[in-house]
Amino acid sequence: AVGVITLCWPLIRQAWDVGSVNFIVYTDRKRFEAQRCWELQSLEGLLGIICMFVVDMLQIWLSASILLSWVMTSEYFFPIPSIPIRPAALMGGPISEGPLSRYGINVAPMVIGWAFRFVSSKLEGWVGRAFQRAHKRQRKQQRTQETPAERAARKEAKRVRKEEKRRQREQERQNDPRFNQPEPDIRPLSVEEMQEAAVKAAESRQKNLESNTEFDDLD
Q1: What are the φ/ψ torsions at residue 105 (nearest 5 degrees)?
Q2: pLDDT single digits (tens) 102-150
Q3: Cβ neighbours around 94 below 10 Å, total
Q4: Are 204 and 198 in contact (CB under 8 A)?
Q5: For a Cys staple, 193 with which of 58, 148, 189, 215, CB 3.0–4.6 Å?
Q6: Separation of alpha carbons 53 and 33, rounded Å
Q7: Tens digits of per-residue pLDDT, 71-100?
Q8: How many C-beta atoms lie closer than 10 Å to residue 62's C-beta?
Q9: Nearest residue to 131 (alpha-carbon basis) of 26, 54, 25, 43
Q10: H or E element at residue 4
Q11: Which has the closest alpha carbon to 48: 67, 33, 68?
């Protein structure tokens, strides 16, 4: 056992580092979601966060059960049904009647894992929409309680922000070399230039006809 641990120690250490980082990211995200839910006073968001936490714990239970089932058995593993797919049995002929037809792949863990991820994504979208509705409701409530002076100050700040954005776009447009190129000199052709162009076109057409005639003589 010591030799196996020593041999696999770099892999174990890397797995521990990755797990620690994922745990920190997960806890920070859940802390931010809970804080946002408290700020918006959203009961729907709180219910969604709790459901997402339950689904995440079920996913961890499923993954740990699958990994540990390779080396041990326990009654505390995730209850995974048996949904085997036997490739040899699907091929037909003598192979389907041989000993290989008894071996298969249990696809139940993959189906359950996909179902958990699907439910988690739906819950995440539902929590986001709940936060959006709560934010709109909170802003509407704040606007109904503001005084005329506060309303005027808010509109003035909004106008200043729009003006600042417009000024920034104009500055970026001026600094962009694509918009600083000089305008091309476009002017109508004179009569002499048009006659000269027509003569050149006629000469070119005549040369093309003569070259075609030479090839016809060779045939």
Answers
A1: -115, 125
A2: 677 788 889 999 999 999 999 999 999 999 998 888 888 877 877 888 7
A3: 8
A4: no
A5: 189
A6: 11
A7: 888 888 998 888 877 776 666 666 666 666
A8: 18
A9: 43
A10: helix 2-7
A11: 33
Residue 37 structure tokens: 């839910």
Task: Say if CB 64 and CB 15 are below 8 A apart.
Answer: no
End-to-end CA distance of the chain: 91
d(CA 135, CA 141): 10
Measured from the Cβ of residue 80, the count of other Cβ atoms closer than 10 Å reads 15
Write out the two tokens for 187: 């002017």
Read off φ and ψ for residue 188, nearest 5 degrees: -70, 150
190 DSSP 8-state letter: P
R_g over Cα of the chain = 37
d(CA 160, CA 142): 21
Q: Which pTM does this prediction carry?
A: 0.61
As given in the structure block, the two tokens for residue 130 are 């709940």
- Residue identified by tokens 């049904």 is 81
Cα→Cα distances 84→39, 89, 91, Å: 48, 11, 15
Amino acid at 39: E
CB contact at 8 A, 30 and 49: yes
Residue with tokens 């005084």: 147
Residue 72 contacts residue 100 (beta carbons within 8 Å): no
